[in-house]
Amino acid sequence: MTPFGGSDRTDDPGLPIKFGPCSNGEYIPAPLTTVEREAITRARRACDENARRVGMSRPDFLRSVCGAATTLLSLQSVWLDVGRPALGGFWDVPADGALDPDAARTTLAGKQFVFDVQGHHLEYPLMPKDRHKPFFGSVFPQVNCGKDDPHACFSREVFLEDFFLRSDTNLVTLSALPIAPKGSPLSAAIMDETRQTAELACGWETVLLHAQVLPNYGPLKANLDEMERNARRYPIKAWKVFTHFPDAFGDPGNAWRLDDADAHLAKVGHAFIEKARKLGIKTICAHKGFGAGSRYASPEDVPAAARDFPDVNFIVYHSGFERTGPREGSYTKRTAHVGINRLITAMRKHRIRPNQNVYAELGSTWWTIMRDPTQAAHVLGKLLRYVGENNVLWGTDCIFYGSPQDQIQAFRTFQISREFQERYHYPALTPTIKAKILGLNGARVYNVKPNTVKCHFTRRELEEVQLSFPFRHQTYGPRNEHEVKLLHAHHRGWPG
User: Fold this and answer.
1) Which of 102, 157, 227, 367 is least crowded, fewest Cβ atoms below 10 Å from its Cβ?
2) Domain boundaries, the chain
C-alpha cells in the first residue's frame, strides 16, 4: 500500500476523498490514525466491489461521484464501530449513493456558489538538470502529479486545472505566502499573470488577488510605499499579512501585532491598517494558527484591531487552528487559551460580537479535521456560534492538497449531530448556512457577484492563452549556487 489513499497500481487514481498525510508546509503532518488506515482499507475493498457491481472499471469508479460516496460511507462505518462515546457529527450520504450516482449527487453535488478565498501556486523554473536535487515540495503528495519535473506540479496550469476543471470552485483568491518578495515563486507579478490567464481562459473574472505586506521586514515607509505601488499596479482585493514573519523563519523576535499592543515589537500594525484604509482596500487577511512554533501567530491581536478600526474587515486565516495543539473541543474556561478558542476569547474580551468585522477562514483547517467528525463538529460549531454564520469563509489552501473537490464534497455532506447542537448550542448545518460558508459570505466581503457558471477550458487552450502574453524568457528563482545558499539561509529551507 502506498500513502495518500493511493495504490501501487499505475491505473489507480487513488481514493476520491484523500487521507494524506499531507501538509501545506507550515506544519509536520501527523501519520494516519488507526481509524483512517482502516477506513482506507474498507474504502478500497468497497470501491472494488461496487465498481464490479455497476460494470465500471476501478479507475472510472474512483473518479465518479459514487466513488466519493463509497469512501465517505466507509469512513463513517469505521467511526460508528469505534463509537467514542458519541460522535459530534456525521456525513449525510445515502447508502444507495455508493451505487446510484443520482442518489450520491443529492448530497455530494450542489449548485452553490463556491468561492475559495485561499489558493496558492508556486511558479518555479523548470530545470531538468536539477531534477535530482532536493526540492522542498517533495514532501507533498502533489509532487506525484505525473509531470516530468516535480516543480511543474505546483505551476499555474495545475492550479487552474485543479480548481476550475477538477472541482466545483467558481472563484478563487490567490493568496500570498510567507516568503520575502525578492525571488518569490508567488510574487505580485506572477499572481497577476495567473489572474489574466484565468480570465482569458474562462471569459470572466475567476481569480482575485491579495497583495503581500510585511510591514516589519525592512523600513516601514518602504513597505507602505510598496502597498501604494501594488494598489496602483494590480487589482488588489485584500492584503495578506503574517505577524509571525520572519520570527518563525529564522529571525527570532522579529514579529509584530495588528493592535500594536506589545511594546517589545515593532509598532507597525496601526500604520499598516491606516495605509490600507487610505488606499480604499479595507480587507486584511491575517495568517493565524499553524504558527511553526511562533507565539506571534496567535489570533489574539485581531479583535482589538477590529475594535479600533470598525470600517475594516479582518479575516483570520486558518481560524487560529493549531495542528500541534490538543484536539479541538468545546469552548471552556480551561481551554480558552488554545487553538481556535484564542480567537473567541479575544473577541469576547474586546466585545466583538458575531457577524461584525472579524471573519474566520477554513484553509488547511478543514482539510485537517474533515475526517474526524467530532473535531469537525466542534470547529464548525464554535465558529458559527461565536464568529457568526455570516462570517465563516470557505478556503482550502490548495494547491498543496491537490484538487479541493474532496474538501467541498466532505463539507457538503457533513452535519453536526443533534446532541452537539443541544449540548453546545451549535447551529444545524442547514443548506442556507452551507451556501453562506461555501461562497456567499466571501462574495459579500469581497464585493463580487456570485457567478455559478462553470469555467471550461483545455490544456491546449491554456497554452494558447499563455502565448498571447507579451513576455521575456526569464527565470524568477535563484540563478547560481550563491543565491541558492542565500535563499536557503534566509528562509531556513522553506521554500527552497
Assistant:
1) 102
2) 1-109, 115-446
What CA–CA distances, in Å, run from 31 to 1, 8, 22, 34, 362? 14, 19, 9, 9, 21
Q: Are strands 115-119 and 358-361 parallel, antiparallel or unpaired?
A: unpaired
Radius of gyration of the CA atoms of the chain, in A: 22
pLDDT in tens, 229-239: 999 999 999 99
Mention every residue, 6+ apart, whose C-beta is less than 8 A from residue 152.
126, 145, 158
With 0-12 / 13-18 / 19 or more C-beta atoms within 10 angstroms meaning exposed / middle / buried, residue 167 is buried
Amino acid, single-letter form, for residue 119: G
Residue 349 has φ and ψ, to the nearest 5°, of: -60, -40
Query: How many alpha carbons fall within 13 Å on the CB side of residue 86?
Result: 9
CATH fourth-level superfamily of 115-446: Metal-dependent hydrolases (3.20.20.140)
Q: What is the pLDDT of residues 166-202, one digit of tens each?
A: 899 999 999 988 877 776 777 888 889 999 988 988 8
H-helix or E-strand spanning residue 74: helix 65-82
